[in-house]
Amino acid sequence: MAAVLRSSLQRLRKSRASATSRGCAATAREKSKKTEARSPLLEFQLDAREVKHMAPHVLASAIASAGAGRHTSPTLWRAYAVRASEVRRRLTLRDLRRLFQGHAAAGKKDISLFRDLLDDASWKGDPQASARDLCFVAIALAKLRCNDDIFEAVTTHFAENTMDDLESIDVSSLANAFSRVALTHKVCWANISERLRADASSALLPPAAATMALNAFAVVKQCDSELFMSVVDSSIRPCIADYTITQAALLLDALARCSSVTAQLAPDLFGSFKRLWLSQGHLQELAGPEDLAHLASSAVKLGIVQEEELNLALASAGLQHVGQFSPSQLALFCSNLARLPSAGRAAFLAVAALQVQRTLRFSSFVDLGLLSQAFGSSSIALTREASELYLQRLSVVSKEELANLAQGPGSGSDLVNSLAAALERVAEGSLHLLSPSVDGELLLASIRPLTLELCARRAVRPRTAAAVLGQHAHFCVRDQELFEALEDEDQSSSDISATLAGRLLRPLGALGHPSEHFLQSVDKSLSIWGKRLSATIQSDSGVPNVVFEPWTRSTRSLPALAADLFAAALLDFAFLSEVSVTYLFSAAKTQCQLNLPADSALRMKCAGEIAAASQVWLQHVAGHREACWLADWAEEVFSTGGPQHNLAPQPSSALLRSVFAALQRAQEPGDEILVAWPMHGFRADLALRRPGATTMAIEVCSKECFYSGSQRLLARCAMKHRVLTAALGAPPVQVSHWEWPWRHDDQAKFLRSRCESVWSQGTKDCKGKHLVLKPLVSP
Length: 779
Fold this sequence. Notes:
Layout: H1 2-35, H2 40-45, H3 48-51, H4 56-68, H5 74-86, H6 93-106, H7 111-119, H8 131-143, H9 152-160, H10 168-180, H11 186-202, H12 207-219, H13 225-236, H14 245-257, H15 259-280, H16 282-286, H17 289-301, H18 308-320, H19 327-337, H20 345-354, H21 356-360, H22 365-377, H23 384-406, H24 414-433, H25 440-456, H26 462-474, H27 480-486, H28 498-511, H29 516-530, E1 536-538, E2 544-546, H30 558-570, H31 578-594, H32 600-620, H33 625-639, H34 653-666, E3 672-679, E4 682-689, E5 696-701, H35 715-728, E6 733-736, H36 744-766
Parallel strand pairs: 5-6
Antiparallel strand pairs: 1-2, 3-4, 4-5
Helix pairs in contact: 4-5, 4-6, 6-8, 8-10, 10-11, 10-12, 11-13, 12-14, 14-15, 14-17, 17-18, 17-19, 18-20, 19-22, 22-24, 23-25, 24-26, 26-28, 28-29, 28-30, 29-31, 30-31, 30-32, 31-33, 32-33, 34-36
């Protein structure tokens, strides 16, 4: 033990000594830097007092030196701007190149100065002007993210003159500069494409030139099929090994963006790169965070998602760099990795979720959407602290994006479309991502203004509308203004799939919102299938046998179909034709005969939803064949035993116990109290059976039974009341939490008076006539 301690002390002394020596060396270097004298030329260039006397070429050199040295003195750069404006007509193109390069290196963006310099340039209209210098001017302006209109002088020159003086790498750099500012000058892009095709046909393009060129064309959506095929065949395939992982990732991303060449070029090229990386182990060693994000994105775009070895390598490499991703890179990588199955996917996403708080502080609205989609699809929930930070950041970036939209992008802009897609991801992913303690109303309020703005710009597609409605249904929040805004008339004629029809129908039913706009779209989708239903043939034994055509063997499961039927019943089948409803019942019947869920609890839930929907539909169409068959099937499932599912939310246990105790005090001799009495998929909270009178249902309505912030019953609870009314011949006694007395004596009197009132009213309504299901008016 003593020897171990001595060796530990020796190592500690050595480490302290080495740290001290390193600190002394660093201090000495700092002192040498401070005492190091600048050259007289540099002192002159950085002296603001001398700037006003500088000649044009001297000024350009001084600005280039200041930018390269990262000198950012406001006084110095103001002096440079004033002097440059004075001598702008004497500046040559070479001077402008150095001037703009200096501004780009220092990050100094002075749009008014740049416009003056380009408008009054002496080289404009000169065909002998150096194309290379002009190319570097364009690159510097692109680095500063200047607007595309400031490039007019550059584009005019390249549109009217040849690019013979430029090398391939210069042409690719020019294309990359144009793509960074989304410049879409057709003549310039055509000239660039022609020059690159000529270079690719005569010699190999350098990897950097080929990568920049194809990526630039893809970014601005100028997908020249001939150019892509020429460059890939002549300059990429022959020298796959010369391309770095970064270059390969950008190339694959470019091919994935250009649909006209994706199928022909991308899969084969992706496979070649994949074999090279996996055989040499380069992916884990050389791929950086940005490379991994682009590779995962390309794999998903190209549909190459079942490559277990590649997916595992991506997840393993991601774990090595998990703390080095930028917010945008991490969001993009997580979103795409969640769709690439592998043994390491869950591990990476779990680690990323634990470290996501640093990312959330700097994430954009689009980034939050991608993270929501990734973690939500993998059933990963954030911690309470991370959920609160997510909610705070969501509120901030929603306001920022709303301000960006106010600056003028049209309804069809890329910004609007990307925000609408991000809104869909946020609405879907936040339901599973956030901690249960998060205030749902606060979450909805934070994105409400942005949602309304996107609706006003008609950027909300049916998929996005279904996600937003589902989010409101999850938190039981009715927002009539927002619901009406989601109804985009431009999308009313668009066809939607049966799956999307179900995604729209279920939240509409849960919200009790019979939107004619959406339900007509749902009916149109379902009726297409309903009209193709085959006839039902009676067998000799009398048991109906359905002729199953190939199209009826759909991938829609019984739980999905049962949920659709129940949602339609919640809306009393409003705006749905008999053809559409018959299709749903027939498809559910098919699944009952062929693909029953193995889980007994899930099977019981489906039976409850089908039983409730069948009872409501039979009030509209008495004796409907499929509805009767499914109702009998549901009763058969119930008869097998086991706990039945309750389709309505469970009321507060404290209020339920209080009402039960009061009912015991108020009951008369011979009365029988029933608890959780099953009835067509629902359970009556309490029931009072009195000799010589009808059974009385008593519904306990706590806060869980009402929409948030209102006294309107949930659609499920209202339907439960209708079912009980039809089954028992009298409406149930409703005990709402806000009207329940505190004193025991008052509670018994309250129940006694309510029961007597309902009994007498039920006798009047039921005497001599058949009771029809009617909506219960909420308090």
